[in-house]
Amino acid sequence: MGAGTFGPPGWQDDPSWRGWWGEEPPFRTPTFVLTHRPRPPLPMEGGTTFHFLDAAPAQALEVAREAAGGLDVRIGGGPSMVREFLAAGLVDHLHVVQVPILLGRGVRLWDGLEGLEQQYAVEVVSTPSGVTHLTFTR
Ligand SMILES: NC(=O)c1ccc[n+]([C@@H]2O[C@H](COP(=O)([O-])OP(=O)(O)OC[C@H]3O[C@@H](n4cnc5c(N)ncnc54)[C@H](OP(=O)(O)O)[C@@H]3O)[C@@H](O)[C@H]2O)c1
User: In terms of pTM, does the model score above 0.70?
Assistant: First the structure.
């Protein structure tokens, strides 16, 4: 995940910040946080350890792949970090959930990625609530 997902702006200045998820985060696996201001690893309850990395996407993926020992690596967000991985061609499967709530502002996931859909098979599933699932599979 990116630094913007791990905490609110400026969390790097708060040594007591341990993420949004309490003492037992739901990840239960080594979890890598990309930040330009890394800190030592943070072991949590339930199998999650947060590791803080200042690395290019390909390097970060290599580190996560090694930790995964042959299992899949999931890139969790937010939008700035996902965009970097997409631009570098490192994503095999993308699941975007679109919710019909109009915030009217925010970080743009697709900026600079024109034509990306041509590299993927795209499937769309809508639900009665208006939530729409888009999957991109390479
Ligand atoms: N709806 C959702 O599921 C969801 C999920 C996540 C975020 N969000 C929201 O999206 C908004 C913006 O999020 P965001 O795009 O800023 O979040 P983000 O992608 O999680 O974080 C971006 C930050 O991660 C660090 N980073 C990214 N790539 C890096 C690299 N290669 N090396 C080192 N550091 C790297 C940088 O932080 P530093 O330079 O500060 O270290 C960068 O500013 C926020 O409002 C957030 O609440 C929503």
Answer: yes
Percent of the chain with pLDDT over 70: 100
Range of the domain at 111: 3-137
**Residue type at 48?**
T
Confidence of residue 98 (pLDDT cuts 50, 70, 90): very high
The answer, yes or no, to whether any atom of ligand 1 lies below 6 A from the CB of 31, is: no
Q: How many domains does the chain have?
A: 1
CA–CA distance, 96 with 105 (Å, rounded to integer): 18
Pocket test for ligand 1, best of 6, 14, 35, 84 (most atoms within 8 A of CB): 35
* Domain CATH for 35: 3.40.430.10
79 lines ligand 1 (CB under 6 A): yes
CA atoms within 13 A on the CB side of 92: 4
